[in-house]
């Protein structure tokens, strides 16, 4: 084994000034260029620490005392929100959080040598209670059914009823469902023995409508006392839909493939930018309603749409972006891999009286190359991929199709800058990245970039 040559040792005490905050919201102190990562401290703070772990190139320490606090420090944040990963940035003042997110993008762009301007992050008016969706594990602790959150990097449940960033109406529903499960004696799932019944409770809420969907994720198809239980949940405020999702597998994936509607309608309704949307249990839907409207508006403005444009909305989910722009353009073609989401998207086009949308179920990286082969015309391409970003096959096909404009909406700046590098090298130009704070108090960074084709 290589000998570790770190300037610090485990269990050694030290003091220093925090110089940086990593993407994971860990404070950094450098000892002779050797970085120590320390939770719950902020840049500029002078602290005493205890070294807890020493690796070859970096170590970890625990804060013992903050001798000089940052002016950006928010006091009185409960540790559970920091430690369970619910709100890792809650100790940082909101203006400093917005700067932190802008800086993340600046740092990553520098790594790929792209000289783009990063605009100040568009902030949220509401920094708590903004999430419209919750997925809460259910377990038994000391003989009592509990709902809460896993302790960081574990599956130990920490009971919790105020989740801080979720809509309070959702927290209330989860608590009420928990009490009903206790009352009817419906057992919680036991991960160790793969026994018991209820694994998770998922709740979704349409902010514009107040409609809530409750999904009980169960190890078995039918619940004990099912009729009485469902009747009682259906009587809770705002609940318009109850689904039993059947997940019999030993897996970390929350939802199983099969589900059964046991009360009301199979979707909730919400509104974005004046359009109505039906959202079913298996479909992706942005979790922060107000910031989503700002995000979409930023993307739409950047696209500079014309009435004759053929628009592609790739990674389209329930069709929200395409439907928001359909009235302004000639045609919208949507690509999405989850069939349930595409079914929602079709229903949503109809719900909004739109007839100029086309839908393709499939992987964007497989659909786009076939369109490139068929020389499908496209003027504006919206992409809104998951965290892993665009695949090389997708980018290659886009560079063949050559849309005049690409609007990239990204939930992961690391993959965004990687993909921007490829698109710029392939003949596109970008000037500005606009971060939008979709997830206040957390370290997630969302951004929008418009790219224009410069080479023919
Ligand atoms: N634009 C939508 C959805 C964005 S989330 C909105 O704003 O709500 C990303 C979407 O991409 C999800 O719906 C996911 O199911 C879908 N997706 C993931 N991988 C994909 C792939 N390889 N091809 C097409 N769609 C994919």
From TrEMBL:
<dbReference type="InterPro" id="IPR029063">
    <property type="entry name" value="SAM-dependent_MTases_sf"/>
</dbReference>
<feature type="binding site">
    <location>
        <position position="384"/>
    </location>
    <ligand>
        <name>S-adenosyl-L-methionine</name>
    </ligand>
</feature>
<feature type="binding site">
    <location>
        <position position="286"/>
    </location>
    <ligand>
        <name>S-adenosyl-L-methionine</name>
    </ligand>
</feature>
<dbReference type="InterPro" id="IPR030390">
    <property type="entry name" value="MeTrfase_TrmA_AS"/>
</dbReference>
<feature type="active site">
    <location>
        <position position="411"/>
    </location>
</feature>
<dbReference type="Pfam" id="PF05958">
    <property type="entry name" value="tRNA_U5-meth_tr"/>
</dbReference>
<feature type="active site" description="Nucleophile">
    <location>
        <position position="411"/>
    </location>
</feature>
<keyword id="KW-0808">Transferase</keyword>
<comment type="similarity">
    <text>Belongs to the class I-like SAM-binding methyltransferase superfamily. RNA M5U methyltransferase family.</text>
</comment>
<feature type="binding site">
    <location>
        <position position="315"/>
    </location>
    <ligand>
        <name>S-adenosyl-L-methionine</name>
    </ligand>
</feature>
<dbReference type="GO" id="GO:0008168">
    <property type="term" value="F:methyltransferase activity"/>
</dbReference>
<dbReference type="InterPro" id="IPR012340">
    <property type="entry name" value="NA-bd_OB-fold"/>
</dbReference>
<dbReference type="GO" id="GO:0032259">
    <property type="term" value="P:methylation"/>
</dbReference>
<protein>
    <submittedName>
        <fullName>23S rRNA (Uracil(1939)-C(5))-methyltransferase RlmD</fullName>
        <ecNumber>2.1.1.190</ecNumber>
    </submittedName>
</protein>
<dbReference type="InterPro" id="IPR010280">
    <property type="entry name" value="U5_MeTrfase_fam"/>
</dbReference>
<keyword id="KW-0489">Methyltransferase</keyword>
<feature type="binding site">
    <location>
        <position position="336"/>
    </location>
    <ligand>
        <name>S-adenosyl-L-methionine</name>
    </ligand>
</feature>
<keyword id="KW-0949">S-adenosyl-L-methionine</keyword>
């Amino acid at each position: 084994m290589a000998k570790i040559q770190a300037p610090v040792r485990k269990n050694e005490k030290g003091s220093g000034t925090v110089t940086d905050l990593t993407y994971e919201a860990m404070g950094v102190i450098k000892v002779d260029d050797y970085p120590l990562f320390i939770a719950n401290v902020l840049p500029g703070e002078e602290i005493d620490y205890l070294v807890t772990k020493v690796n070859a190139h970096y170590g970890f320490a625990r804060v013992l005392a903050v001798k000089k606090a940052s002016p950006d420090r928010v006091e009185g944040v409960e540790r559970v929100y920091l430690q369970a990963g619910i709100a890792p940035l809650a100790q940082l003042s909101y203006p400093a959080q917005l700067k932190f997110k802008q800086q993340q993008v600046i740092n990553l762009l520098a790594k790929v040598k792209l000289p783009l301007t990063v605009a100040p992050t568009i902030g949220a008016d509401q920094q708590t209670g903004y999430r419209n969706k919750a997925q809460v594990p259910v377990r038994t602790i000391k003989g009592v059914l509990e709902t809460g959150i896993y302790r960081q990097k574990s599956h130990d449940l920490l009971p919790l009823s105020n989740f801080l960033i979720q809509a309070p109406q959702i927290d209330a529903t989860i608590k009420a469902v928990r009490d009903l499960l206790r009352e009817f004696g419906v057992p919680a799932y036991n991960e160790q023995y793969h026994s018991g019944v209820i694994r998770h409770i998922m709740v979704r809420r349409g902010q514009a409508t107040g409609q809530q969907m409750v999904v009980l994720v169960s190890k078995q198809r039918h619940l004990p006392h099912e009729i009485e239980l469902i009747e009682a949940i259906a009587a809770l405020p705002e609940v318009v839909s109850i689904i039993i999702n059947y997940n019999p597998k030993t897996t970390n994936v929350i939802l199983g493939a099969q589900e059964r509607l046991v009360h009301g309608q199979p979707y909730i309704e919400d509104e974005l930018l004046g359009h109505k949307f039906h959202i079913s249990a298996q479909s992706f839907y942005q979790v922060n309603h107000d910031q989503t409207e700002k995000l979409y508006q930023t993307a739409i403005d950047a696209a500079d749409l014309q009435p004759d444009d053929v628009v592609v909305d790739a990674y389209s989910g329930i069709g929200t972006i395409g439907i928001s722009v359909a009235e302004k353009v000639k045609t919208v073609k949507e690509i999405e891999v989850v069939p349930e989401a595409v079914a929602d998207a079709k229903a949503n086009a109809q719900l909004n009286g739109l007839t100029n949308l086309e839908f393709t179920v499939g992987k964007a990286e497989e659909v786009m190359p076939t369109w490139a082969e068929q020389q499908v015309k496209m003027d504006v391409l919206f992409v809104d991929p998951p965290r892993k970003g665009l695949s090389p096959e997708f980018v290659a096909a886009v560079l063949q199709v050559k849309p005049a404009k690409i609007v990239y909406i990204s939930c992961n700046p690391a993959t965004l800058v990687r993909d921007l590098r490829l698109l710029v090298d392939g003949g596109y130009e970008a000037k500005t990245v606009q971060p939008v704070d979709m997830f206040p108090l957390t370290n997630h960074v969302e951004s929008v970039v418009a790219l224009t084709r410069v080479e023919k």
